[in-house]
Amino acid sequence: MNTTTRYGATALAAALGVCVLAGCGGSDGKASGGSGDGDSKTVTLVSHDSFNASDAVLKAFTKETGYTVKVLKSGDAGAALNQEILTKGSPRGDVFFGVDNTLLSRALDNGLFTPYEAKGLDRVAAGTRLDADEHRVTPVDTGDICVNYDKKYFADKKLDPPKSFDDLLKPAYKNLLVTENAATSSPGLGFLLGTVATYGETGYQDYWKKLKSNGVKVVDGWEQAYNEEFSGSAGGRKAKADRPLVVSYASSPPVEVLYADPQPTEAPTGVATGTCFRQIEFAGLLDGAKNEKGGKALLDFLISKQFQEDMPLNMFVNPVAKDAELPELFTEFGAVVDEPATVAPEKIAKNREQWVQSWSSLVVK
């Protein structure tokens, strides 16, 4: 949504490499979206590391439009966005995917995108269209950043898992939680914003002082937190991790089921639904894109019913298209978050840097 290195799909995406769609284009390693004449049949998507899509769906896009998609993965969402800001006006690709509501103002304030109203936008949930007046970005998915817990650990200890932000301060959960750095990771930033939404601009600092005293561990990004530090994940079990609480996503439990062999009848991890922050991810046509026509076609496709229904078991996010259906595995094992914490985009834009700076001085330094 770490952006975002996210979810168990990260391992699959890493195995597939940088170019994971219908084709990788040329072998010269350049990130160009085309030859510059606007007629290139390759369209380059710049994204965070967690972008993933099925071969069949991307081949369908190629068949329908004639464009082959080349994916340029650029680390966590924050890192990917920073690279695009540095190359503003001479982008590395045609479309950027992965900027979310926690970082959206940075992208818009830097003028990274050319306005475009994607076809089919009327099918997209109105609450996700945060740039509805100018159409500089198109909403693609939503997800909920939440604390996940290792069911076996809590069953063995005969201890109830936490349910809320308040619970995480209790002595019973001392030294159990690992979270991502709010300055370098979108799940970490989302978790911070969840505490701001819950305790207010004057109360969140006191909350983090108490959480630090209760032994919260901070690491750089989601990959390390979830797959190296969290005892409930497949990677964490292999690494002999000792933290049974981690900031991840409400959709992380289905990942543990999908990639397990054999697949269990119950997810080994659960979600503390009272700790969730709603994340919305967007894509936009990069200003100066060499293949603007192909980029527009790709944006149309990202909100198509076909792509939207492909996302849940590839990127473990929720579709924004109202006509898209969720797969059974996703609905059976994923947590439903009825009342996630939210912060208005304009409030995030105004205060994000100050909140992160204050958080860093309290928790990291």
How do you describe this structure in short?
With 365 residues, this protein is an alpha/beta fold. It has helices at residues 9-16, 55-65, 77-86, 104-109, 151-156, 186-213, 222-229, 234-238, 252-258, 292-302, 305-310, 312-315, 328-333, 345-364, and strands at 42-47, 68-73, 95-100, 113-114, 138-150, 177-180, 217-219, 245-249, 269-286, 318-319. It has 14 helices and ten strands.
Largest sheet: 10 strands, mixed
Sequence stretches where pLDDT stays below 50 over 5 or more residues:
1-37
Bulk shape = globular
Number of helices: 14
Helix content: 25-40%
Percent in strands: 15-25%
Backbone structural class:
alpha/beta
Count the strands? 10
Helix-strand sequence? HEHEHEHEEHEHEHHEHEHHHEHH
Nearest-integer average pLDDT: 88
What is the C-alpha radius of gyration, as a whole number of Å?
20 Å
Determine the N-to-C terminus distance.
27 Å
Overview of the structural elements:
The protein has 14 helices and ten strands. By secondary structure, the chain is α/β, with parallel strands linked by helices. Strands 1, 2, 3, 4, 5, 6, 7, 8, 9 and 10 form a ten-stranded mixed beta sheet that branches. Helix 6 (186-213) links the parallel strand 6 and strand 7. The protein is globular. The model is unreliable at 1-37 (pLDDT under 50).
Topology:
Elements: H1 9-16, E1 42-47, H2 55-65, E2 68-73, H3 77-86, E3 95-100, H4 104-109, E4 113-114, E5 138-150, H5 151-156, E6 177-180, H6 186-213, E7 217-219, H7 222-229, H8 234-238, E8 245-249, H9 252-258, E9 269-286, H10 292-302, H11 305-310, H12 312-315, E10 318-319, H13 328-333, H14 345-364
Parallel strand pairs: 1-2, 1-3, 6-7, 6-8
Antiparallel strand pairs: 3-9, 4-9, 5-8, 5-9, 5-10
Helix pairs in contact: 6-14
